[in-house]
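During the second year of the project, the team shifted from modelling isolated chains to modelling whole assemblies. The rationale, set out in the original proposal, was that interfaces cannot be judged from single-chain predictions alone. As a representative example for this report, we include one of the complexes processed in the last quarter. Its constituent sequences, exactly as entered into the pipeline, are reproduced here:
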Amino acid sequence: MEFKKKELANGLCLIGEINKSAKSAAVGFFVKTGSRDETEQINGVSHYLEHMLFKGTEKLSALEVNKAFDRTGAQFNACTSEENTVFYAAVLPEYLVEVTKLWIELMRPALRNEDFNIEKSVIKEEIAMYKDLPSFDVMDRCRRLHFDGHPCGNSVLGSEKSVGNLTAEQMRDYFARRYAPNNMVLACAGNFDWDQICSVVEVPCGRWQQQVATRKLEDCGGSKKKERIEKSNLAREHICLMSAGVSAQDPRRFAASLLGIIVGDDVGSRFFWELVDKALAEAAAMQSVAMDGTGTFYSYIRCGSENVCKVLDTVRNIFDSLSKDGITEDELRKAKNKILSALVIKNELPMGRLVDLGSNWIYLEQYRTVEDDISAVKAVTIDDIHSLIEQFNPGDFTQLSIGPAG
Amino acid sequence: MAESFDKHVLNNGMVLLGEPMEAVESVAFGFMLPAGAALLPEGCCGAGSVIADWIFRGAGDKSSRQLGDALDGLGLVRGCSVGSSHIGIGVALEAGNLAEALELYADIILRPSLQEDQFELARQLAIDGVHSLDDDPRQKVMLKLREQFYPSPLGRSTVGEVAELEALMVETTRRIIKNNFNLSQTIFTVAGKYDFDAICGQMEKLFSRTKPAPGGAAVSVRDKAGKYTHIDDDSAQVHIALMTETVKPTDEDYYNARVAVSVLSGGMSARLFTEVREKRGLCYAIGARYHGLKEAAGIMCYAGTMPQKGQETLDVIIGEFNRLAEGISEEEIARAEVRLKSALILQSESSSSRAGAIGADYYMLGRVRSLDEIKNKIEQTTVDSVLGFLRNNKFKDFTVVTIGPKKVTVK
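Output from the structure prediction step:
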């Protein structure tokens, strides 16, 4: 593995980790923008804009873009979160240059009115689709309740109303402010030629104008409010719990991930043995989500209406015992083994490696090898976890449930 | 792409297959146990889900908790799923822990505790799983589609039926495990970093004590269910699923069928995405894929759209299926081929994908195809071969299922 880095005069950072033994290569633009960078009036614009990038440039129509990707056999897509918009592709090594050139072109889209109008229907369909997925809907609503006015509570998709009212002009303005070279990173991983990638990036990307792209960064302790929403067509109770956690810049993020595994991994965690194994809940998971300058622990639990009280009592007992008695060495050892094998397996694929490479640069401006992360996980002690529990008290949470009329 | 495969057959007929991979530190293994939904006795729909949970609730000399702790202690990334033909156990891990993991799985498969109190919990979770489908219309519509499309019992729900789960008895379920966990019909696969001689030695010790047993009777199929099924739901979208018959993986036209599906829905420039989403904005989620069992196969398609656009969406989709045989360009075939080949190679970097793929090949074809063979077969398809196939195998009937507030008309 060899790490390479280059920064253009306009602030665009190009990074790469070369693995000549890989059979593929992956490339991605990581743009530091998402729903937390939106105002209420333009809520949903980051995600909508992500769609619009595929609609082409002054020279390329949408169909030509799609054909160009498919000619390379790329497995490609994009995703938008509260704070990042990522455009990525995994290809055979011989196609990496072609697909990188294509992404570079698309980073300066035409944003045509007619495409904007057609895509609005697609976005509205996506909003409707997620309304039919209560496991997603409950998290979205709980995030808003927890962050309570903090921009991290903004919905990624936006609402039918905010998207409906959005204009192409507003999107162009947002694009000009946020898709600045100094607000994005281009990352490559796997089997590729660094000099060749640099040569295709430098000229076209060097023309992009630098902008002042800032972000409101403040931590959020969470509202700790409790709400329940009834929906007559639901069969199960969907419960989301959210509490304050560590940020992506915080060295304690590895300890936080381990705590998430100990409390709420799919199998073998405290949630698993107390809720799922005993058939009180059908699904119960907790994880640490580290964000820019803030973070959360969030849990998702699904159960029958008849079990809700018992489930919530059990959850309270789990968190009480966590605060009172802490965790055991054995729990920590198992959680480390789980995280370490998942880390190794994920990073064997260039696409998996790309995600960590890009994220570490976005949040830390730092290159971290897989071994760095492995050592950081191994170094976490039981005392680290205990002080995390003491400081963040994950039992003091915001709670939102969606379920059938009771 | 020089590859080699390992194969060894135990005395009792259990097949061990391996694919060594350079440049990985992980290993993945899997067991394909002939206990899929279609192989279960009548009236036991959902028993597979119960079994896939129950066998992990204690095995060998370990209690449920001890077993769970032992599996977690090895850092296994593990899953167990129920398909039409098999219960599939899949595990990925760091290569150094393989031998210890296999010891635990031998207990799970050969010596599960199967205690009565644990059965009740496993059954309750299986019932909950069926109820939860009501809150996931997309998954539900696809399960219902398979049920309606495949001749019974091939499409039987892999999740289960509440009434049958409620009636399921401990003894019946124990008997299913005894009869269906038949090692003579079980396929074990491993891919990644491993020593095949060491695995064979260990597997001989662990698994060859049971005697060969005759295979279960072939599935006898009955008629298909209805052509159109609608489930009323007050959902935001109408969820449309449809499926039409095509050739099986053993057919000589299999690769023509795969390329045809790729032209229809293999990428963002493929026809369904272009016509349904890009030009008309009818859907966010739209896609078709090949779905093959040993006994029958089809092309399945899903689309979710707001109720007032349901009919137009269905009509455009069926129009695109039928338009395929009218003509395909060289460029479309070239894109379809490169997409299929790339997907193949990208998946080949993952030990879990390879362990799954070699097992599926062996079950379907009786042998493992090399990546080169698949690549060559894809490259041999042409506009003429794909069109010839489509014209000789016209899409006749479409099985359609919808969930939502509004029905569609199936012409």
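Residues 211 and 368 of chain B are 26 Å apart (CA to CA). Chain B has two domains: 6-207, 228-404.
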